[in-house]
Design goal:
This protein has helices at about 20-25, 30-40, 60-70; strands at about 15-20, 55. The protein is built from three helices and two strands. Helix content is about 35%, strand content about 10%. This is DNA-binding protein.
């Protein structure tokens, strides 16, 4: 049985998550998430004063996960 990925409801949207914590949360290797960042398809990150560790807000993590799991209609080959 696969457990769906989700952000706990009691987490405040303004709280910060470290890059490493986010990778653990979504069960994705850091290398993959770094690749997403370089390609511009991952969540939006920030650094304090432009240096140091990467952070993401809980709200951005929720937005990213919602967009990644948004069901899209399948395209039919006869369209």
């Amino acid at each position: 049985m696969v457990t769906p990925i989700g952000i706990p409801d009691d987490w405040d949207d303004n709280n910060l998550i470290l890059f490493e914590e986010f990778c653990d949360l979504i069960r994705t290797p850091q290398r993959t998430v770094r690749d997403w960042r370089q390609r511009g398809v991952g969540p939006r990150w920030t650094r304090f004063q432009g240096i140091g560790r990467l952070y993401i807000t809980v709200a951005e993590a929720r937005r990213f996960l919602a967009a990644a799991t948004d069901p899209r209609p399948e395209r039919r080959s006869d369209d």
